[in-house]
Amino acid sequence: MDINLIIKSEARTKILRFFFSSIEKEHHLREISRLTGVKLNSVKRELDNLLNANLIVFRKEFNKKYFKINKEYIGFSELYILFIKSEENIVNIIKFLKNEKIYDDFIYLIITPSFIYNDKSPDRIDILGVMKDSSNKDEVEKKYSSIDTYLNREINSIIFPLNTLKETLKRQDRNIWNILFNKPTFIKGDIYDFLMEQN
């Protein structure tokens, strides 16, 4: 299974997540665009890519095409588990942070492909948390430290106050730049706001 097929494009990931959330249903082009928030031209392009990879199939009714996930695809089971599990983990991260009353301390929460694919490499970063300032960083880190137990897996995380993150990016820190260039998933905040903050 080619993992790059999923993580190469944010639009493709959104569309696949949409299909895997309703594997029995068929959807037409405009419906996919409306429900995923992906622009129509991008949906067209990504559907072509997914058709070429045999990940989706379609039927034609009059002049309209209806697309659905291809359950006969050789890696269907693995992909289905991957997408459903990643959604469950995102929900659990948010629940944990809210239970610990530290969700509002973060302005950005970013999970990386290494988290989604359960990469075991020791130098990976699974979650990047960005706080507005460092006034209660120690308290937040202390509460945050039990996330491994809550999710029942080892998590490598970095928590930065916003000003420290800016300095780190200016120093061209390879690990942080790798996160930002490998299609991270923002579970709090927006990538465009985040990039504007860095100017």
Count of folded domains: 2
Order of helices and strands: HHEHHEEHEHEHHEHHEH
Binned strand content: 15-25%
Radius of gyration: 19 Å
Distance, first to last CA? 38 Å
Give the helix/strand class: alpha+beta
Annotation field: number of helices: 11
Query: What is the count of β-strands?
Result: 7
Describe the structure in your own words.
- By secondary structure, the protein is α+β, with helices and mostly antiparallel strands.
- The protein has two domains: 4-74, Arc Repressor Mutant, subunit A (Orthogonal Bundle); 86-197.
- It is built from eleven helices and seven strands.
- It has helices at residues 4-7, 10-20, 29-36, 40-52, 76-99, 113-116, 137-144, 147-151, 162-170, 174-181, 191-197; strands at 27-28, 56-61, 64-69, 106-111, 127-131, 157-161, 185-188.
- Strands 6-5-4-7 form a four-stranded mixed sheet. Strands 1-3-2 form a three-stranded antiparallel sheet.
- β2 and β3 form a beta hairpin.
- It is elongated and about 60 Å long.
- The termini are far apart.
- Residues 1-5 have low confidence and may be disordered.
Task: Itemize the secondary structure elements and their pairings.
Blueprint lengths: L3 H4 L2 H11 L6 E2 H8 L3 H13 L3 E6 L2 E6 L6 H24 L6 E6 L1 H4 L10 E5 L5 H8 L2 H5 L5 E5 H9 L3 H8 L3 E4 L2 H7 L2
Parallel strand pairs: 5-6
Antiparallel strand pairs: 1-3, 2-3, 4-5, 4-7
